[in-house]
Amino acid sequence: MTFPRRDSFFRIIPVCLAALLAVTLIAGTSAEAAPTPEQRKELAEISKEASAVGTLIRKKQWEEAEAKLEELLEQAEKIIKDGEFPENDRAAAAVVRAINLKRQAVAKGLGKPDPTLISFSKEIAPILDGKCGRCHSADMRRGQLNLSSFAGLQQGGQSGALLIPKSPQRSLLMRCVTLPDPQARMPRGGEPLSNDELKKLYAWIEQGALFDGSDPTLLMSELMKEVDGKGGDKPMPKPPVEIAKATGNETVSFVRDLAPTFVNICTGCHGPNRQNSGFSLATFEDLMRGGDSGRVIIAGNLDGSRLWQLVGVDGVTPRMPQGQARITRKFHGDLRKWIEEGAKFDGNDAKAPLRSLVPSEAEMAAEKLASLTDEQFREHRQTRTEEQFKRVAPRARARFVATNEFLVYGDASEERLKQVSEWAELHAGRLRETFGINQKPIWRGRLALFVMSDRYGYTEFNQVIHQRVIGKEVHSHSQVTTAFEDAFAVVEDVGDEPADSHGGLQLTVQDVITEAWLRQPGNNLPEWLIRGASLTLAAQGVQENSFVNELTPRAIGALEGVAPGEIFDNGRFGPGDVGPVGYTLVSFMLKNGGTQKFGRFVGQLRGGSAVAAAVRAVYPPADLNALGAAYLQSLAGGGRK
User: Fold this and answer.
1) CATH number of the domain encompassing residue 419
2) Of 339, 358, 377, which residue constitutes the final position of a domain?
3) What is the pTM of this model?
4) pLDDT tens digits for 405-430?
């Protein structure tokens, strides 16, 4: 049995059953554990010694306590590993947990970070860099996702946010790496994450997805050097590089004529995440510094410039780039002229990523979309919608109903699609009134609304378009990407009668339309607000509904023991509870402040304000505790019916 290194095993024991099952699917089951009575006795002795360290802590003899606890932890982990203790062994877990609690107290006394937390720089960055960096780098960005830095991880990609801190079960990153289907699981086409890697990733998110580096925009490779897990040695300083600034009289521009080729052709082997022969093209400064063989560009000296020799003197027999089409004659001529003119830099910052000088594929696509007229964008939405549906159901007969705000598309009957379009148009008016939306249509090119006539079709949509497996309680979702390249919502036709997991098709449609507005890139709204507002506004458009009626009792159960100020914390409630809690909370805010105030509150959050600041600005003199207490009191008095 293989265990994670120092203290990482028992600090990540409290993982959910689903994650453990996912790990088992990927890594296989472990051998039967067989600890001996002697090994258990040794653990018991270590437990007694750990208790005795409490005396050192009370005397504030921090250094002695720290050294003793590290020694005991090392001994305990060796016994656990040698004895092949089962991962759910309570006695072993209790020993390590007791040691770690004391380590936390000692670290606090010494003013050091909590030693039991997963380190992003030391433990998570190597996983993401090694397993994900090839397809999701600053140069590649598949799915508009850049995992070359912590900032890129936080930003997410085309499918939305990857992380919900303290909630690994709901974090897209965790779902992507634990899918049972090897064709859908990430990394695509590569080795799956190991048992140890999955546990570390799960525990890191559960602990809050904390960042322990100096700069979240640092490349993963640089971050790992900054916080060296092998001993903390700082990397050797890089040699200085002289940068000649362009005067404006040059005939070749590095930024315009050379950088695009370097970024799009060369950085696969010489980029931020992969530096063959020690040579990086991550920045202009890196280019001029060279690699293991020394400088590759000598200003004004073609024969002395190794890069010129590698791409083929006069365009003949180029040795680089390997395994790819030859570079263009224009690039070859521009490179020659640029070196002869002094290899000058016409950008603003030689330390900036070359990618930042060159539009990415996503940026170029966004620029192209921005140039379309309204009519052309409507045509784009129609074409895009047809293509997506054909991918999901190539043999199905598609129908559609077009309105001012929506393109309702699917394999349902024409009458059903028309009914859905009427519900959708009415609900668009509620959105405009609540959130003060002025643009027409609300989503550029309209919102595509896919109506899948059965469960199979909805499941297939998720597998084909999103490469994911969904739970049986999920009946709808939405996706709106930057620049509105994609703007769609998808619903399963669940019928008109409410059930335990849904309120019927009309409620589902109105719910997901609101969600499509609130989940737009850049909104950064808490999950309780998204689900709460979506359900609350949807409920306004339906008559008596048993699913809606059950939301308040479910919320009351979920709120037991929760402090007023904690109610507004993003990630505080799990997937099954965030909807009912959000529904009752948003309903309370609308009832006591009105639509305009609530719209202003959402506007504050969309503008970047924290929830606490938005509450103070819109609902004075209340703060989070006062508003939360009033909300809880309203539920105690009967709540919203």
Assistant:
1) 3.40.30.160
2) 358
3) 0.54
4) 999 999 999 999 999 999 999 999 99
